[in-house]
């Protein structure tokens, strides 16, 4: 066995000579490339063979001695076919049919984009072909996030076929690896499962192209050595900025090294890179923490608010949505009467959901109308702008639902352009929710989809939209693409989708947008760049929502997690409100049907949320205190950046005992006023009760305090306000 490294080195030496002759590189082997953030570093090294290797990702450490032998299995972005025998990051067939690639360092550069962000580009080239890969790393220093992608360029005379094209493929070294994934289905989104990885490959993936996150979204946490908990243990978070089919493959090799190959799913997705074309993979986000999963989440939240989502620093409006109250059965009069309810409860925006369009094929059920985006003249004789102006007259903003990528066969659009739907020749069309996906790889279709978005959002008075997508792809064929590009359909679809979404964000900066996809079927940082929030699930039973919101909170900040009070599950109203208050609060019910007391309670809650809770929840640091998976109670707190304010939420899922909850994230020295707010009493006059006038953060974190929630469906919202802020607020 000892002979092998020598043989390998000899081979490398010979290979290096050949490379040097064919293509001179500009560096000597041994060069280090370090990509640091505030509390982590990714350390790379150019080997003597000219390949780039990964040395370390994790805690900052001193330079590692340069004499280390670099094992071929630790290559940073390993290509298939020229010596690498494990799962490769890249598989390319050159124009001449050669199925191997080799990637040799050419040069690298690091540029400061601003005081916080820098970009490192490492240029690699196949020594035998004009075939280039640039590995790009953006480091967000204070958020401890590294964003990584690859640019693959074909300089050959013919097409190069890409069969694999990972965004990133870093390696980790630990005794054990524990993978936390977030799987699920319609109404069970973001369900958490954590397992120890065993040798071989474990793949989390999607093959359904559109609404591709339906059975799991492309994000995970890897715990190193032992399962990390919320506040301790080494954990790495990964999240792919891609809304199409994805693959996250975890390859645990014979030396107990783990490689995470992450990117667009290469399954059935061969891509022909034309001469001169560059394929830019979607980005992969990484963050590392030695203080558990909680810090992984806070790093993602901080990054998202600053760089990853729209309007990261703006409060989300409180929405009143009509979907659960009316379904598609409404009239103009009914909708206008709901505006009064919106006003009464203090909602900011009324969101008109599905069912407002289609004339020859009216959208009264889900079997017709998608594609025909003109207001239905029976339901809305005065059009959408009339509704918007009626809402505006009452001081309410107006939002509207769209599903622009889809078509019902029962529609004018399908009658005129049956070829615009994604379909396989010689196969009977398979519908899902009576609809088909439009083929966005066709530029005419992209133009049409943009016209739907642009016309709808240009309607005077529209200032919000919910973009839905209820159909995945299971017959991935295009009447537009030539036969040898059919496998590119789902990739091209998603790039075209991003064109439209990005146009929306640019053209309508004042129209906030919620991403929806039959519940949480499109929740990823690829689409979230263009959205303010997302709809996590059509399951709005607060008992289920606690877990669903808990799952998404691992990657997405509370302001993105739309949380609406509904009557699903018939839970106590206060319980439903308290659960929704821990996200971007909204309401989805016919508030005219509430009893006067409940109406009063709901409007008091919304007023409280807007004046005292929303900014802490949406902009604060999240600490998940007690998991709904482990105990009959769930608890979480949010703490403002300066630690002067915090909000604690406690939800009793089963009958339990009186038990302390220990807060986290507070200033140990600071004295806090601790009050229960949103307290339910028969009279609106008693809405708060004080537990401590003056208690320090250290005591609350060490000894905890006993919240007033013991029985099933009890819940409590506890507000903490620092001494000086209390005086300022006159409390
Ligand atoms: C699915 C969404 O998740 C719901 O909230 C609603 O908008 C319906 N689609 C409308 O068809």
Q: How do you describe this structure in short?
A:
The chain contains 13 helices and 36 strands. It has 731 residues and is an alpha+beta fold. The strands form 7 sheets. Strands 5, 6, 7, 8, 11, 12, 14, 15, 19 and 20 form a 10-stranded antiparallel sheet that branches. An 8-stranded parallel sheet has the order 28-27-26-23-22-21-30-29. A 6-stranded antiparallel sheet has the order 31-32-33-36-34-35.
Give a written overview of the molecule.
The chain is an alpha+beta fold and 731 residues long. It contains 13 helices and 36 strands. The strands form 7 sheets. Strands 5, 6, 7, 8, 11, 12, 14, 15, 19 and 20 form a 10-stranded antiparallel beta sheet that branches. An 8-stranded parallel beta sheet has the order 28-27-26-23-22-21-30-29. A hairpin with a 5-residue loop joins strand 32 and strand 33. The termini are far apart. The site of (2R,3S,4R,5S)-2-(hydroxymethyl)piperidine-3,4,5-triol has 11 residues, from loops.
How much strand content do the residues show? 25-35%
Instruction: Work out the helicity level.
Output: 10-25%
* Mean pLDDT value: 93
Total beta strands: 36
Structural class: alpha+beta
Q: Count the helices. How many?
A: 13
Contiguous low-pLDDT stretches (5 residues minimum) are 1-28
Supply Rg. 27 Å
Taking the alpha carbons of the first and last residues, their distance comes to 74 Å
Report on the biggest sheet.
10 strands, antiparallel
Question: How would you sum up the global shape?
Answer: globular
Name the ligand types.
Answer: (2R,3S,4R,5S)-2-(hydroxymethyl)piperidine-3,4,5-triol
């Amino acid at each position: 066995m000892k002979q092998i490294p020598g043989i390998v080195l000899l081979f490398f030496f010979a290979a290096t000579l050949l490379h040097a002759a064919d293509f001179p590189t500009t560096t000597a082997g041994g060069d280090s490339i370090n990509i640091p953030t505030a509390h982590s570093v990714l350390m790379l090294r150019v080997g003597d063979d000219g390949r780039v290797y990964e040395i370390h990702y994790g805690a900052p450490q001193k330079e590692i001695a340069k004499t280390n032998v670099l094992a071929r299995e630790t290559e940073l972005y390993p290509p298939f076919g020229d010596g690498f025998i494990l799962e490769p990051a890249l598989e390319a067939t050159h124009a001449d049919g050669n199925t191997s690639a080799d990637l040799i360092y050419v040069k690298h550069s690091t540029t400061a984009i601003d005081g916080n962000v820098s970009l490192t580009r490492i240029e690699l080239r196949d020594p035998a072909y004009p075939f280039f890969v640039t590995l790009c790393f953006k480091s967000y220093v204070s958020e401890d996030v590294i964003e990584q992608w690859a640019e693959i360029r074909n300089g050959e005379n013919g097409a190069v076929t890409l069969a694999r094209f990972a965004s990133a493929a870093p390696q980790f070294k630990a005794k054990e690896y524990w993978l936390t994934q977030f799987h699920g289905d319609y109404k069970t989104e973001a369900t958490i499962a954590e397992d120890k990885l065993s040798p071989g490959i474990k793949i989390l993936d999607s093959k359904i192209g559109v609404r591709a996150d339906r059975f799991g979204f492309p994000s995970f946490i890897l715990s190193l050595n032992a399962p990390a908990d919320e506040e301790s243990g080494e954990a790495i978070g990964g999240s792919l900025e891609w809304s199409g089919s994805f693959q996250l493959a975890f390859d645990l090799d014979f030396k107990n090294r783990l490689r995470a190959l992450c990117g667009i799913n290469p399954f059935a997705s061969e891509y022909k890179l034309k001469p001169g074309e560059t394929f830019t993979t979607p980005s992969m986000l990484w963050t590392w923490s030695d203080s558990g999963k909680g810090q992984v989440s806070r790093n993602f939240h901080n990054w998202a608010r600053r760089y990853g989502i729209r309007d990261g620093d703006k409060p989300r409006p409180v929405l009143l949505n009509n979907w659960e109250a009316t379904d598609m059965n409404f009239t103009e009069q009914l909708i206008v009467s709901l505006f009064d309810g919106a006003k009464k409860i203090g909602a900011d925006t009324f969101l008109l959901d599905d069912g407002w369009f289609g004339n020859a094929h009216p959208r009264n059920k889900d079997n017709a109308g998608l594609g025909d985006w003109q207001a239905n003249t029976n339901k809305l004789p005065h059009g959408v702008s009339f509704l918007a102006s009626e809402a505006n007259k009452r001081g309410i903003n107006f939002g509207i639902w769209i599903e622009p990528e889809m078509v019902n066969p029962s529609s004018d659009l399908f009658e005129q352009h049956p070829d615009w739907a994604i379909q396989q020749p010689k196969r009977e069309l398979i519908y899902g929710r009576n609809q088909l996906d439009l083929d966005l790889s066709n530029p005419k279709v992209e133009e049409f989809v943009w016209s739907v978005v642009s016309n709808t959002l240009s309607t005077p008075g529209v200032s919000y939209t919910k973009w839905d997508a209820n159909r995945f792809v299971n017959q991935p064929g295009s009447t537009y693409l030539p036969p040898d590009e059919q496998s590119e359909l789902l990739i091209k679809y998603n790039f075209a989708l991003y064109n439209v979404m990005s146009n929306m964000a640019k053209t309508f900066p004042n129209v906030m947008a919620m991403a929806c996809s039959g519940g949480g079927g499109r929740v990823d940082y690829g689409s979230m760049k263009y959205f303010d929030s997302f709809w996590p699930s059509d399951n709005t039973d607060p008992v289920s929502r606690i877990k669903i919101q808990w799952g998404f909170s691992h990657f997405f900040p509370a302001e993105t997690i739309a949380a609406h009070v509904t009557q699903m599950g018939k839970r106590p109203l206060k319980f439903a409100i308290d659960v929704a208050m821990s996200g971007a609060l909204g309401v989805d019910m016919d508030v005219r049907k509430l009893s006067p007391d409940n109406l009063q309670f709901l409007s008091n809650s919304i007023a409280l949320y807007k004046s005292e809770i929303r900014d802490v929840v949406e902009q604060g640091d999240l600490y998940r205190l007690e998991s709904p998976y482990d105990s009959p109670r769930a608890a979480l707190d949010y703490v403002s950046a300066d630690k002067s304010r915090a909000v604690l939420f406690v939800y009793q899922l089963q009958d339990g005992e009186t038990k302390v909850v220990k807060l986290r994230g507070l200033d140990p020295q600071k004295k806090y006023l601790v009050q229960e707010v949103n307290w339910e009493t028969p009279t609106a006059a008693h809405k708060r009760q004080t537990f401590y006038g003056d208690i320090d953060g250290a005591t609350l974190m060490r000894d905890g305090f006993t919240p007033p929630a013991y029985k099933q469906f009890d819940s409590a919202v506890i507000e903490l306000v620092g001494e000086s802020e209390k005086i300022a607020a006159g409390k």
